C-alpha cells in the first residue's frame, strides 16, 4: 500500500513574525509544483494566521504545536482545536517530547488532545520516542508500545486511520545525532505491527509514521527510503527554507 510522504516543519518557539512570514513565503515559492509530498508548517500559534495567509492557495498546510482539549471556558492562556481550525490549521502536533518532558504531558493528556483534534477535523501528529537512557537499557520497544497504547487510547480504527505518528527518539532531537536508517526502520516496523494489533492490518498500513530527530537534506533520502518511514517531522532544519526544501526534494516521489 502506498502512503503519501508527509514532511512537516516544527518551528517550535524559534521564529518572530517577520521571519515566520519570510520563511513561509520562501517554502511556498520553492516547493516544486509537481512535488508529490504532503507538506505542513507548524509555526508558533501567534503566527499561524499570518503564515496561513502567506501560503495562500499553495498546497502547503499549517499546523499548531499543541492544543488544549476542552471547548470554550475558563482556561486562561490556552488554545483549543476549534481555534486552530478557525485560523486555517489542518494539523496539530501532539505529545512532542519537549511538552512531555518540560510541561509534564502524559499519555492520557495526549489521548484527550487527540480526541479533541479529531473531533474538530484536525489531523493529529502524535509524537512518541524513547530517551537515550531508555534506549541504552533496551527499553525502546516497550516505551514506544506503552506511549502508543496510552496516547491512542479510546480511538476506533476509523479514528486511527486519520492520525499521523511521529517516531522521535529523544536523543536525536536537536542533537545532530540521527538514528541510523536501520535503527529507525526497526522501530517503525515495530510500531506498524503494534498498530496492526490495535486497529487491524488495513488501518496500520494506512497510517503514516514520520521519523523525527536531526533530519537534514543530507540524511533524508536514506531515512525516507525505508519501507516504514513515511515522512519526517523536522525541527532545526525546517527553519531554513533551503534545508527544508532539500528534505522534501529527497523524499521518494512515488
Ligand atoms: C523535533 O523537535 O520535532 C525535531 C525533530 O527536531 P530536530 O529536527 O531539530 O532534531
User: From the coordinates shown, what is the CATH architecture?
Assistant: Alpha-Beta Barrel
Name the helicity range.
40-55%
SSE pattern, N- to C-terminal: EHEHEHEHHEHHHEHHEHEH
Uncertain regions spanning at least 5 consecutive residues: none
CATH top-level class: Alpha Beta
Radius of gyration: 17 Å
Strand order of the largest sheet: 1-2-3-4-5-6-7-8
**Total domains:** 1
Amino- and carboxy-terminal Cα gap: 12 Å
DSSP strand count: 8
Decide which structural class fits the backbone: alpha/beta
Task: Quote the beta fraction.
Answer: 5-15%
Verbal overview:
This protein is α/β, with parallel strands linked by helices. It has one domain: TIM Barrel. The protein contains twelve helices and eight strands. The protein has helices at 17-30, 48-55, 81-86, 97-102, 107-119, 132-136, 140-151, 157-160, 181-199, 201-206, 217-224, 241-250; strands at residues 6-10, 38-42, 61-64, 91-94, 123-128, 164-167, 208-212, 231-234. It has an eight-stranded parallel barrel, surrounded by six helices. Helix 1 runs parallel beside helix 12, helix 5 (107-119) packs across helix 7 and helix 11 runs parallel beside helix 12. The protein is globular. The model has no long low-confidence stretch (mean pLDDT 97).
Amino acid at each position: 500500500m502506498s502512503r503519501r510522504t508527509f514532511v512537516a516543519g516544527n518551528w517550535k518557539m524559534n521564529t518572530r513574525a517577520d521571519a515566520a512570514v519570510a520563511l513561509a513565503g520562501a517554502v511556498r515559492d520553492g516547493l516544486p509544483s509537481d512535488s508529490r509530498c504532503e507538506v505542513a508548517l507548524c509555526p508558533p500559534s501567534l503566527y499561524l494566521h499570518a503564515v496561513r495567509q502567506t501560503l495562500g492557495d499553495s498546497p502547503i498546510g499549517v499546523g499548531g504545536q499543541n492544543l488544549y482539549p476542552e471547548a470554550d471556558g475558563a482556561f486562561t492562556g490556552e488554545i483549543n482545536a476549534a481555534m486552530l481550525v478557525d485560523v486555517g490549521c489542518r494539523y496539530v502536533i501532539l505529545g512532542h517530547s519537549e511538552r512531555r518532558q518540560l510541561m509534564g504531558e502524559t499519555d492520557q493528556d495526549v489521548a484527550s488532545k487527540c480526541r479533541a483534534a479529531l473531533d474538530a477535523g484536525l489531523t493529529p501528529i502524535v509524537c512518541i520516542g524513547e530517551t537515550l537512557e531508555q534506549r541504552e537499557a533496551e527499553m525502546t520497544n516497550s516505551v514506544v508500545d506503552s506511549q502508543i497504547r496510552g496516547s491512542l487510547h479510546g480511538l476506533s480504527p476509523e479514528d486511527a486511520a486519520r492520525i499521523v505518528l511521529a517516531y522521535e527518539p529523544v536523543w536525536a532531537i536537536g542533537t545532530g545525532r540521527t538514528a541510523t536508517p536501520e535503527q529507525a526502520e526497526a522501530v517503525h516496523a515495530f510500531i506498524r505491527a503494534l498498530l496492526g494489533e490495535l486497529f487491524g492490518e488495513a488501518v496500520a498500513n494506512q497510517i503514516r509514521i514520520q521519523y523525527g530527530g536531526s533530519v537534514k537534506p543530507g540524511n533524508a533520502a536514506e531515512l525516507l527510503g525505508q519501507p516504514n518511514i513515511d515522512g519526517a517531522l523536522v525541527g532545526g532544519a525546517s527553519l531554513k527554507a533551503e534545508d527544508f526544501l532539500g528534505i522534501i526534494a529527497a523524499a521518494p516521489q512515488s
